[in-house]
Design goal:
The strands form 5 sheets. The protein has a 7-stranded mixed β-sheet, sandwiched between helices. It has a 5-stranded parallel β-sheet with strand order 9-2-1-13-19, covered by helices on one side. A 3-stranded antiparallel β-sheet has the order 10-11-12, with no helix packed on it. By secondary structure, the protein is an alpha/beta fold. Helices cover 32% and strands 23% of the residues. Helix 1 packs parallel to helix 10, helix 5 crosses helix 9 and helix 7 packs antiparallel against helix 8. Among the domains are: 178 residues, 3-Layer(bba) Sandwich (FAD/NAD(P)-binding domain), CATH 3.50.50.60; 102 residues, D-Amino Acid Oxidase, Chain A, domain 2. This is FAD-dependent oxidoreductase.
Length: 420
């Protein structure tokens, strides 16, 4: 049995703690605030919990695997249902093409693309990502990644190839290119420096769907908190971890403002890195400005909308009359929407704008791609001396699915403690 200290009580920390406790490790979780769940709880404003990213997820197997391997199965804990299509509005001058792209089925995607654009080069391109997805999953997701990429994987993944190069090669029609490039821009990355293999998420969404938890992400946070209680995790709130202590070349504890907590293994899930840990030579992603919009009345629209203008804008529903706008286009987001045929200006009854500097203080959005080698420089790669990382700031990325894969890999690496 290892004495494991988990730092941070968000999604990463809760899933890591419950998994490792189920494997019979002695687990303590340190949370700086008085509540668990982190960004799953949302941002409170105007008597409402706002979610600064869409509440839908892909790869439902990641969540099912967590619940199954930490206790009762997911279907006995929280309901999950398929999300509706994502609306893409492609703006070219005065022309607007509207694509409602469904998830989880190739046939439905094909039909939607043909209906909007008249032909379907999209589906064959997504098909081609299947082997890439398998390679990325096996080499970078299923185990704690060591930072290497052997020759067979290099041939498969072609890591030097960028998203921009792949989009130009695959599509003559610029409308399809923008469907590939804009998700990268929205994430805060440059398609000219982002590896093409990261586009596998189009394959994952089509094959595994997008899903919504009943009660949203706060309900998921509550379920995770209950699970840590069931697994008898020692949760210590209002305790900020500062650094990791070492003895004889291995982790010996976590330094907090109140003293040192002994540990043989540390899983650091908090966005602030340990003081003694060398900051990676990467650039932190700068989130796009967000606008929280309260409308006069509910609108009959898909729950997620992407406007592909010169630069993209993304909207998602965060309540019956509540929408969040993520704006990479600059200027007033309501003016950008009006130019795309969505004039919400008369409908907005309350509004709050969040600048990037405010959003950076609310959490980590991961590290910007600067070529494929950036993958090997993130915290969590080549774990040493009993220190592991998981979370938005760590390998393999900032989405819930990727974070869930990271904590599963850590648990698999540490393994089960034999029964006495």
């Amino acid at each position: 049995m290892a004495r494991v200290v988990i730092v941070g009580g968000g999604f990463a920390g809760l899933t890591a703690a419950a998994r490792l406790a189920k494997l019979r490790h002695d687990v303590t979780l340190l949370e700086a605030s008085g509540t668990l769940g982190g960004r799953l709880r949302g941002l409170e404003w105007d008597d409402h919990a706002w979610h600064l990213s869409p509440e839908t997820v892909t790869l439902p197997g990641v969540f099912r695997d967590f619940f199954r391997k930490s206790g009762r199965t997911m279907d006995r804990v929280i309901d999950i249902s398929p999300a509706g299509p994502r609306r893409h509005i492609v703006v070219r001058g005065r022309r607007r093409d509207v694509l409602d792209l469904p998830f989880g089925t190739r046939g439905a995607q094909h039909d939607a693309v043909v209906e909007t654009f008249g032909s379907d080069p999209w589906s064959p391109w997504v098909d081609s990502l299947g082997p890439v997805w398998d390679g990325v999953r096996r080499r970078m997701f299923d185990e704690v990644y060591d930072g290497g990429l052997e020759r067979p994987y290099r041939r498969l993944l072609r890591p030097r190839r960028t998203v921009r190069q792949a989009a130009r090669s695959a599509f003559r029609d610029r409308r399809f290119r923008t469907l590939v490039l804009d998700p990268v821009r929205l994430a805060g990355d440059d398609p000219a420096h982002t590896p093409a293999y990261t586009s596998v998420w189009h394959y994952a969404e089509r094959n595994f769907g997008r899903w919504r938890f009943a009660g949203g992400l706060p309900a998921l946070a509550a379920a995770l908190e209950r699970r840590t209680g069931e697994r008898k995790v020692d949760v210590v709130r209002s305790t900020r971890a500062l650094d990791v202590r070492y003895a004889d070349g291995a982790v010996s504890g976590v330094e907090t403002a109140d003293g040192t907590v002994d540990a043989e293994v540390v899983v650091w899930c908090a966005p602030e890195l340990p003081r003694s840990y060398r900051e990676p030579s990467l650039v932190r992603r700068i989130p796009a400005p967000r606008s929280l919009l309260v409308l006069r009345e509910p609108l009959d629209l898909p729950e997620e909308i992407v406007v592909h203008a010169e630069l993209p804008v993304r909207l998602w529903q965060s309540g019956p009359r509540h929408w969040v706008a993520e704006n990479r286009a600059g200027g007033d987001v309501l003016d950008v929407l009006a130019s795309a045929g969505m004039d919400w200006r008369p409908l907005v009854t309350a509004r709050r704008d969040l600048a990037p500097r405010e959003l950076v203080g609310l959490g980590h959005d991961g590290w910007a791609w600067r070529g494929w080698r950036a993958a090997a420089q993130r915290p969590g790669v080549a774990a040493r001396h009993g220190l592991f990382f998981a979370g938005a700031h760590a390998h393999p990325g900032s989405t819930l699915e990727l974070v869930g894969l990271a904590t599963a890999a850590v648990a698999g690496h540490l393994g089960e403690v034999p029964r006495r």
